[in-house]
Batch of 2 targets.
Target 1
Amino acid sequence: MGIVELPPATARQLGASLDIVDPLALTKELLENSIDAGATHISILISPNAVDRILVRDNGSGISPEDFHALGRRSHTSKLETIDDLQERGIKTLGFRGQALASANSIAAITITTRTRGDAVASQLRLKHGVGGVEGMNLTSAPAGTTVRAECLFETMPIRKRYAVKESQKTLSKINELLRAYALARPDIKVSFKVLKDSKNGWDYAPSRTATLQDAAMQIFGRELLNQCNYVEMKPDSPNAGDELNVGGGIVLGLQAFLPKLGLDRTKAKAKGRFFSVNSRPIASNRGISLKFISTVKTFLSDISGGHTASGRPSIPFIQINIQCDPGRYDVNLTPLKDEILFAEEEEVVRCFEALCRTVYQQPAQEAHQSEERSRHEVDCSVMLQGVGKHPTPDSSPLGKIY
Ligand SMILES: Nc1ncnc2c1ncn2[C@@H]1O[C@H](COP(=O)(O)OP(=O)(O)OP(=O)(O)O)[C@@H](O)[C@H]1O
Ligand SMILES: [Mg+2]
């Protein structure tokens, strides 16, 4: 057979099923759209087999009627204009490719109900399957925000559909895990997750409007687990650094982490997990810089235990790290799920994390002053330490505070 151009519908379907490989990926994309729309409350409803229906409702900005024609069309986005936005200036939103809704619209039937705060009524839009744009519309009553309903997933892909149904229980628990990761990355967003006709698999996260990472971790995992971790924050000290921290090499960095104490008891840690995020974007824990962080922590734990752990190498049932930095300092366009980050100054970031670990694992409180002096020479950063549940006794320093 000679080389021929694929029919557009076939090309779209091939691309879409790579972008959205399963119901988990679709849920993630819809959730991210809601977060990007500034939602403070997001609810997710899914059918038990994970393919009949996935519905995500938010109280975000809504979509304005002038944009309806662009919905579900490939490469249509409100978040990016040129590649420089991504590569040089850095992108703050979770989405930027303008593909997710188009892909969703090729592997499922999509209905969107939306209303901006300026609209008197909401519009319910049925997207033209595969191509995007609006096939049918009626006015309806709904609060400001957007609800995206995806139905009949993978209807034209029987093998994928059968597999998705077979894996549906696993998918539901992975969605639970995914939502925990987003709650830790965005502690102030309320999330509720329900499985139709199944009260066991749901999950609710109801934070206060000013909830912090510590509040989220406490609510999600409980004090028992957190007592087995050190909570550490690395903050800026330079008067011009704003909320971030200059670690050298030009990158400005802030870090918040729950790091395991030696001997964190797996059995007592009722919730396990490895959670990493960069600028509130959860990233994969089994690739890239996340693996370097895990390896660093293992090395410190191994050093302080003198290799005396049951398996020789300490295990890390729980760890959580949030990084804040200028989004122009990394590339996020690496994987279809946008869940990996390539830092321009990766070595500096890892060195800064090592300095943080040294302070947690190597230095007792009375050495705090020397530790600061050393940190000042090794990396240009300041460290604030706080043991969870303890009353802080601040020790003043020119760089920051050590509790
Ligand atoms: N829940 C929502 N609330 C408001 N606007 C939305 C919502 N979902 C989608 N949109 C609008 O539709 C556009 C297309 O969404 P889509 O997810 O396809 O692309 P994206 O988020 O820009 O990029 P990506 O493909 O990387 O997710 C968005 O840029 C946004 O303007
Ligand atoms: Mg998106």
Target 2
Amino acid sequence: MIVRRYVVREMPEAVASIRRELGQDAVILSTRNIRVRKWLGLKSERRIEVMAAAKEDFAASAGANFGQALKKAMSEPRDVFTPAAPGPDAWSELTSELAEIKRMLAENRSKPTAPPLTAPEPHERWRAFLLAEGVDSVLADRWARMAVLGAEEAASATGPKEQLIGAVASDLGPLADPAPIRRDSRIVAFVGPTGVGKTTTIAKIAALHVLAGQRRVGLLTTDTFRIAAVEQLRTYADILNVPIAIADEPDDVPAALASLGACDLVLVDTAGRNFLHGSSIEQIKRMLSPIEADEVLLVVSLTTKPADALKMAKMAKPLGVDKFIFTKLDETESVGMIPSLVALCQWPVAYVTTGQNVPDDIDIVSVRDVLQAWKEARHDG
Ligand SMILES: Nc1nc2c(ncn2[C@@H]2O[C@H](COP(=O)(O)OP(=O)(O)OP(=O)(O)O)[C@@H](O)[C@H]2O)c(=O)[nH]1
Ligand SMILES: [Mg+2]
């Protein structure tokens, strides 16, 4: 019979040591709270003293591993002594005590892990989601609040994602509806920063109208700023077999437009410039002024940083922008910029483009359709 004394901070620590050293059949003889002195006797700390017994030394029976087990046991701070052996009654009492401890430990292990105490509030979750999607911070806060309120009122007839989509769409009102080029618009100008896809989008729209065969399309380019820009548009004009005119200066515009007099839809390409510079906006404005476009569409790439896109959109206001075209949806997974810019600028969406293919990769979609992408987003509400 082996009896050992263990001084531990918590009971499970003692049970683990007893199992390891005295084996599965060991029994706990007694437990009591004690205080041990620390810091040269100036302080004391609470500990539990556990007396355990086994019929034989488990470590000794481990044979070849005994040396290792002994080294480990000796390196652990504990006192060991051998009192008189308990009688047969004490054995059965102690065995049932150990069985009870085993049962409690097993019960503890099977308990589900408690949820984190700091789970964010629904409002905070939605706000974080909208911010990650590129929504402006003031709007993210507003739409998150609306979604939470909507959820309370709807008593969860719909899922949380639908409530968010519903909140954004209802806040946008008619701005959430698709707004393609109007049938009564004859001259439509496309403006936007460099490389966002203005010329490609014009080619897509021209091609769709040519294929539909309902309107005679003409192209006018004012982009003589970039080498090969005219050739790029001319190539599309040749493929589609539509007339093209070029205006180098504002004074060239009347003659250029006159050459397209037979067309009932004139799509105007402009030079891509740095929209953060007021001087660039001024140049485009000077060029657009004699054109007197029925609609001005601001082309914004969805790969632009949302804060920059907002700055550019604000800069573009003097150009008389009516609607947005969002390009390169295929190159991003975040669509938050769409409702965000629509709400902040109060311009609806004419088209969304989804790739480089002319004319296939363009769609007339509502903001609501775009928001449906949130349903598939990683955040599961
Ligand atoms: N992935 C992707 N690429 C696009 C999309 N639209 C246009 N592009 C590509 O973007 C690049 C620039 O397109 P352009 O049409 O020349 O852009 P732009 O705004 O006219 O450029 P600048 O006239 O130089 O300002 C080209 O390689 C296009 O094929 C789109 O929806 N998705
Ligand atoms: Mg271009």
